[in-house]
Amino acid sequence: MKVLVFGGGGKMGSTVAFDLLKSGEVATVGLADRSHGALENAKAWLKSSNVVTHQVDVSRKDELTALMKQYDVGINTLPDRRTSYLVVDAAVRCGFNFVDILEEYHRRPDAYEIEGLSIPAGMSLNEYGDWIHETALKNRVTFMDGIGFAPGMSNVTCGEGIRKLDAAESCIARVGGIPIKEAAARHPLRYMITWAFSHVLREYVIKVCILRDGKIVEVDASTGRETFVFDKLGKAEDLECAITPGMPSFIYTRPQLKEFAEKTVRWPGHWDGVQTLKECGMLDLDPVEVGGVKVVPRDVLLARIEPRLRAQPGETDVCVMYNTVEGIKDGKRTRISYHLWDEADTVHSVSAMGRVTGYSAAIGAVMVGKGLIAEKGIVAPEDCIYGSNYAYFIEELAKRDVRILETVETLG
Question: Cα torsion at 240, 243, 246, 250 (round to 10°)?
Fold first, then answer.
């Protein structure tokens, strides 16, 4: 099997490649990136003769299509909507099976802060999403949409919990990447960058659809704050979470739920800081005049805060998941929960976020390449990783020492 990784010169793309190279079923891993230097750095880190690099501009459709035809399956790790959709568009047109890790449900594209996403003339966002799905169906493409941490692992586990209940009513996913506790105290917002921070800030300020009382309602991101204690897997930590758009497909694939929301997990104090920045207008995109110069508040914030959020030597991250699905099982109210606490691999210099996101994407791509995923078109992870595929996915994660604990409780 030959697998092509878009964004292969970045941290997430190279982590995906690192995992693929350990698979006995992958003969060649292609790294596609715009930056020659990033590709060379990734290749040097991977130290494998099975790596092939491709310097490519994803806006050049002919070049992109020709590259896709050299591979069996692709993985899109590009961090923004503009570049992600360029790859999506080319793939469904040319019949290329692939998976994507972006926090987006491409069948129903997010209407806010489109990050340069180019919509074909005469189409609305939803019409474009339907066109992508219908073109993928016509060309027999499997496009697994959102296979990483959240979306991805969280979708798969929540989907499993729903299937185990006779009638599922509520699903709340709590997922996030945070610095180790000692490092959190040294950074603003008690946070450390594990993902493109400009995209993270977008996720904090847009409108988000959730399910409430069985209806789709739109709420502000960063609301619905909740505190909880993560008390499994030998841990006992106070954490906070707030609504973000990390699993948008669930609104459409599980409409039978009365309640659904995805919430991003952070250390206490983070969400208070974010709220203060919002109230001060520092996350706004409308330019303001300062000393006769027009500046964008969020750009100024990013310029000042990003250097302070980068990991310092010895600082690593943790990924946390606490998902709860509630409903009826055998006539009794039941809660099925999924717990994960995953730490960085310091031996191989792989972050916790890289492990849970990159490894999930690599496993998903291999499943597509092996033909384990039969569904065509835009397919959310919860609709194609179940039954024997769920068992395979969980077993593959366990081989990488990424372990998910499932608990079942009867609720009075």
Answer: 120
Q: How far apart are CA 270 and CA 264, in angstroms?
A: 11
Task: Please give the distance of CA 72 from its chain centroid, rounded to a whole number.
Answer: 23
Closest Cα to residue 99, out of 6, 177, 24?
Answer: 6
- pLDDT band, very low/low/confident/very high, at 70 (cuts 50, 70, 90): very high
Q: What is the DSSP string of 280-327?
A: TTTT--S-EEETTEEE-HHHHHHHHHHHHHSPPTT--EEEEEEEEEEE
Average pLDDT over residues 358-362: 98
**What region, left, alpha or beta, does residue 96 occupy, with left being phi > 0 and alpha being psi -120 to 50 degrees?**
beta
Q: Record the tokens describing residue 167, joined without a space.
A: 């009638």
Q: How many CB atoms lie within 10 A of CB 119?
A: 15
Q: Are 87 and 118 spatial neighbours (Cβ–Cβ below 8 Å)?
A: no
Name the token pair of 274.
């974010």
Strands 98-100 and 73-76: what pairing?
parallel
Q: What is the pLDDT of residue 335?
A: 98
pLDDT at 130: 97
Q: To the nearest whole percent, how much of the chain has pLDDT over 90?
A: 93
Helix (H, G, I), strand (E, B) or coil at 339: strand
Q: What is the Cα–Cα distance from 227 to 275, expressed in whole angstroms?
A: 16
Residue 321 to residues 11, 347, 367, Cα–Cα distance (Å): 22, 23, 23
Distance CA 257, CA 168 (A): 6
Pairing of strands 332-343, 207-212: unpaired
pLDDT, position 286: 95
Write down the residue that tokens 């006539």 correspond to: 331
Gap between the Cα atoms of 246 and 354, Å rounded: 16
Which pLDDT does position 115 carry in this prediction? 80
Categorize the per-residue pLDDT at 215 as very low, low, confident or very high, splitting at 50, 70 and 90. very high
Closest CA to 152 of 370, 408, 412, 396: 396
Task: Give, in order, the Cα–Cα distances in Å from 194 to each of 116, 146, 317, 353, 404.
Answer: 23, 17, 8, 6, 21
- State the average pLDDT over residues 337-347: 97
- Number of residues that this document lists for the chain: 412
What pLDDT score does 199 carry?
83
End-to-end CA distance of the chain: 51
